[in-house]
Structures are given as C-alpha cells and as structure tokens.
Amino acid sequence: MRRTVLLSGIWCVLAMVARADQVVLKNGDRITGTIVKSDAKTMLVKTDWAGEVNVEWTAVDSIVSSETLHLELQNGQTVAGRVTTDDGRFDVATPGAGPVVAPRDQVVAIRNDAEQQRYDRLQHPGLRDFWSGLFDTGLDLTRGNSALLAYNLSAKLTRTVPRNKITAYATAVYATDDTTPPSRTTAHAVLGGARMDYNLKPRFFVFGLADFAYDEFQHLDLRSVFGGGVGVHVIKIKATTLDVFAGADYDRESFSPNPPLTLTSTTRNTAEVIAGEELSWKMNGRTSLDERFSVFPNMSNVGEYRFQLDATAATKLKTWLSWQITFSDRYLSDPLPGLKSNDQLLSTGLRLTFGQGKL
C-alpha cells in the first residue's frame, strides 16, 4: 500500500513536470512553470513555488515549452507552436506548417495562448473594452461646539488602447457650517469634462477636450471650454509617463451678480492658448503619483490668464482600495470685483478602483 502511494506520487510529479515549461539558466539553475510572455529583454514565468518570476534574457541558456507559444517576428509575422531553443535560434513545431526556425535576434515578443488573446483583443478593441475607473471620497464632520460638514467626491473613467485614450472625469466639493443659525454653505463647486488623446505615432498625439465648471463662491454659473491640440510622450515606460501638450480653445464664462460690486450678470467669450504637462509615476508596487498642470493665456484679453493644477498620491491597501491625498488649485487672473483669484482644495480619503484597463 505504501509503495503504491509512493509510486502514485512520483507519477503525479513527473506528469506535472512533463506539462510544465522549462527554462534553463546559464548558471545551471532550472525554472519550471508556465512561460507567460517575453519582450526583447525579460521573460515572465509563472511558477507554483515562487509566483511570477521575471528572468533576464541574457541569463537564459535554453527553453522548452510544453504548450503552444506565439512568437512575434520583426517582420510582423507570428508563428505558433511548441518551442525549443538551440544555439541561438528558436525551433517552433507548428501544427500546420511543420518545423519553423527563427533566429533569436528576429524574435521581438513571446506570448502564451492567454496573452496572445489579450494582445489580439488590444489591437482590435471594441468600444466597451478596456475601461477602468476610480472613485475618490473625502469627508469631514464635526459636532459639539462646532457643526461642520465638508465632503468632496471625484470620479474618473478611462479607456486606454494603443491608438487612443478616452477620459471622463468629475469632481464635486460641498461644505456647510451649522455652528450658529442660520446654516451657511461655505463651499459649493462642481467640475467635469472629457478628453480624448489619439496617437499619430508612438511619441506624438493629438487631443480634444471639453471642460465644464460651476463655482457658487466665484459666482461662476458655468464655464464651458472646448479645445484641442498636439502633444509629445516625453517619457513612456512601464512605471512612468510624462506628456507635454499645447493647443487652443474657446472659453465661455457666465457669472451671476455679486452685489454690491456687480449688479448684473457677466458673460465672457474668449480664445485661449493651452499649454501643459501630465505626469503618471508608479513610485513602487503600492504608491503612485498622478499630476496635471495646464495654463490658459487669454488671447482675446492679452495679459489675462488662468491655470489649473491637480495632483494625487495614492497608496494601495487592497487591489481595489487605496488611500489618497489630493491637491487642486484653480487660478483666475481676472475674477469678479471683490473675489479672490485662487480656489484651492486639499483632501484625503479612500479610493475605489474597478475595471481591467489602465488608469
């Protein structure tokens, strides 16, 4: 009985090894698992004993795959089959075309079946594919000698594919003071909009945007901005992206009266220049920083301008839950008489994320 159990265990182990991919390193070490994907520099192997392992190609002596791998070549062709390596070349046992030999320097990427399906879907995505989003919350509440309530809500929805990026966003800020009657609203603003970036080349893109804003304490009933321009991906790597952009827009602002300094409504229609930058930086596996700064010089009233800055740092608590701190600044060089130019917000709270795409 004991012998039967032992033999059964050995056969199970041998069967698992037979079904696994083998990666042999130049130092003699052997990695057994599933080859997931590879680029020109590294290979990702999923193992039972160490999870996902990234291996430098310069450390790899040979590989043997037990399942189909898809090899993307420099000429754009893809060959698929079980793969072995020998003397700097890939030998692919394709089901239909028989053996195919590919020199190592001609292979730009390797993917298993699941990764190839994701890649193909990414090349021809449907409009409903690759959406992701986040929801930020911040709340302050006091009772006793003071009775204050302040909250802010932010939401962002993004679809990122190789050719374009669509982003929709909204922020609401509201605060009241009930310490002494009557109750007073001390902050009330709503911002929102949408933007689309379209990649003309790997480093160059064009964009279009529509922004809307309401701010009770600026007496701003509605600001509508429609514009577009061009941009450059200055940095575009896995952990960091930095874009710079410039363009032009049409800005329509409607202000309500601010007695006794202004007794009638005011409407402004202006042309503006857009210039700015956007940074996304994954500082480590848990913490990220996102920041965007835009300045809008007024071309209809030269010398006037406005700018907006948004920066958020978020640290993951769970895959779907983070703690975030946000700073926002909105500046208008020519507010209504008696009003300040700057509106600033510093808040912290929870962030909920969802979806399978990239934010």
Tell me what you see in this structure.
The chain has 359 residues and is mainly β. It folds into two domains: 103 residues, SH3 type barrels (Roll); 225 residues, Lipocalin. The protein has two helices and 22 strands. The strands form two sheets. Strands 11-12-13-14-15-16-17-18-19-20-21-22 form a twelve-stranded antiparallel barrel. The termini are far apart. About 4% of the residues have low confidence.
Order of helices and strands: HEEEEEEEEEEHEEEEEEEEEEEE
Q: Proportion of β residues?
A: over 45%
State the name of the first-level CATH class of the largest domain: Mainly Beta
CATH architectural arrangement of the largest domain = Beta Barrel
Spatial strand sequence of the major β-sheet: 11-12-13-14-15-16-17-18-19-20-21-22
Q: Any idea of the CATH topology of the largest domain?
A: Lipocalin
Helix/strand/pairing category: mainly beta
Helical percent range? under 10%
Helix and strand arrangement:
Blueprint: H1 2-19, E1 21-25, E2 30-38, E3 42-47, E4 51-56, E5 60-64, E6 69-73, E7 78-86, E8 89-94, E9 98-103, E10 107-112, H2 113-123, E11 131-141, E12 148-160, E13 164-177, E14 184-199, E15 204-215, E16 220-236, E17 240-255, E18 266-282, E19 287-297, E20 305-316, E21 321-332, E22 342-355
Antiparallel strand pairs: 1-2, 1-5, 2-3, 2-10, 3-4, 6-7, 6-10, 7-8, 8-9, 11-12, 11-22, 12-13, 13-14, 14-15, 15-16, 16-17, 17-18, 18-19, 19-20, 20-21, 21-22
